[in-house]
Amino acid sequence: MTEYRSWFQCINEECGETYSLDQIVYRCTKCDNLLEVVHDIDRLKKRSPEEWRSLFDSRYRHRIWPYGSAVWGKKEWVCPYVEDENVVSMYEGATNLFWAERFGKQIGIEDLWIKMCGNSHTGSFKDLGMTVLVSVVKQMIADGRDIPAVACASTGDTSAALAAYCAAAGLESIVFLPKGKVSVAQLLQPISNGAIVLSLDTDFDGCMSMVQKICTEENIYLANSINSLRIEGQKTISIELCQQFNWEVPEWVIIPGGNLGNVSALGKGFKMMYELGLIDKLPRIVCAQAQNANPLYLSYQKNFEEYHPVKAQKTLASAIQIGDPVSINKAIKVLKEFDGIVEQASEQELSDAAAMVDRTGTFNCPHTGVALAVFLKLKERDFFKPSDKVIIISTAHGLKFIEFKIGYHNGSLENIAPKFPNMPIELPAELGAVKRAIFENLEKRANPV
After folding, report:
1. Of 130, 312, 295, 299, which is closest to residue 204 (Cα–Cα)?
2. Which of 285, 420, 362 is closest to 114 using CA atoms?
3. For residue 160, what are the CA distances in angstroms to 100, 147, 163, 186, 192?
4. 190 sits in which H/E element
5. How would you write 242-288 as a 3-class SS string?
6. Phi, psi angles (nearest 5°) of residue 263
7. Does the structure show a pLDDT above 90 at 448?
8. What average pLDDT score do residues 65-86 get?
9. Widest Cα–Cα separation across the chain
């Protein structure tokens, strides 16, 4: 039995109602606010900061089950409730922190990094949270709880993670997708992993409403980020960033925001390290929203004094096409504590930013394009010092969004005039024609207009 404890607690400080992690509960039954996982900080403080850093470093990327996972290597801070034999892990985390040296030199920020969270089992950062949630479900079933399936609403990445982790655990998964609003690759992932896939004629918010009703009325476990177990895995991004920099804290972290669980998770990880003495300062957090789905940005423009859901319009950044994010209150709280900024990016801006940075060696999803575009806008307004360490969170792998990539380069994306198109040059198989094409294009690149 572990010596560490964690539990659900209402985020409303005036309420503070608590629940055990083996309860099927997503909102406070007294005041209807969201819950968060709370840890026994006093017990965690009995280990010194140096001891925690040493422990986490000794486990990092090792093959000792389950601690080689960059999530479960921090098990005491994440979910000590789950016994090791019930952990469902794909060795998630430990993703590349890519030094964007060439891109940084182009725009005058040399200490610029892109956290490649898409280099994960299902190709997105959602794996970090899903390993925790599915492991808790497996533990609950091992303890005698009857849970016939786990369900989520998704714009693609959450459904892929849920289906894969449930398949590995031998659990049934159900995913609710908005019809025609996810990429082919994202649709194929849960299909391939054997999920029950429901394609509904609505948007993400409609799917989210439906899955909550189903899970409330039936004994099906809800896997969306309204379930704060997901946040516990996702918060390890913050810890891992510092770990990869030998426990140095960056000045800025920029992350795309849709349902906003990632923003609250990022803040929670940094706050936990700060409270336990592993770091001595906090970064500033920037949440990047698509202009077509920007409720947090609109609230930020009014100093968070009011918030109104919006009807999300179609955006190429489909995973964040969300007009009524469930984690809005958690995200606002984090942004206030971290002197945060919210900025938006248009469809043109996100498309060009993704393509521009691809030319320096990455392969970005459109949601990362939103974060990159916001970074460029803030840089233009002199938010960053040349010496600042800036980290951009890349949330998913570009291979999930081939239609977006092809459409950009061949000019078929609606209302997008690409600045960086690059299509194959069709030629006869003649030596002279091939040579002319090569050297004409090399000259154009050496002397751009």
Report:
1. 312
2. 362
3. 28, 20, 5, 7, 9
4. helix 184-192
5. HHHCCCCCCCEEEEECCCCHHHHHHHHHHHHHHHCCCCCCCCEEEEE
6. -65, -45
7. no
8. 97
9. 78
Structural domains of the chain sorted by starting position, each given as residue range(s) with its CATH number in brackets: 97-122+231-410 (3.40.50.1100)
Q: How far is CA 38 from the centre of its chain?
A: 21
- Between CA 224 and CA 403 the distance in angstroms is 26
The amino acid present at 385, given as its one-letter code, is K
- Phi, then psi, of 252 in degrees rounded to 5: -135, 140
pTM > 0.85: yes
440: left (phi > 0), else alpha (psi -120 to 50), else beta?
alpha
**Residue given tokens 């009703």 in the structure block:** 213
Helices (H) and strands (E) in the chain, counts: 17, 13
- For residue 272, give the nearest of 310, 221, 235 by alpha carbon: 235
Residue range 242-255: mean pLDDT, rounded: 97
Q: Which helix (H) or strand (E) holds 345?
A: strand 341-345
pLDDT digits (tens, 9 = 90+) for 330-383: 999 999 999 999 999 999 999 999 999 999 999 999 999 999 999 999 999 999
Residue showing tokens 């078929």: 412
Measure the CA–CA gap between 320 and 257, rounded to whole angstroms.
6
Q: Are strands 112-116 and 97-99 parallel, antiparallel or unpaired?
A: antiparallel
Strands 390-394 and 252-256: parallel
> For a pLDDT cut of 70, what percent of the chain falls above it?
100
Radius of gyration from C-alpha coordinates of the chain: 22
- In the chain the first and final C-alpha atoms are separated, in Å, by 67
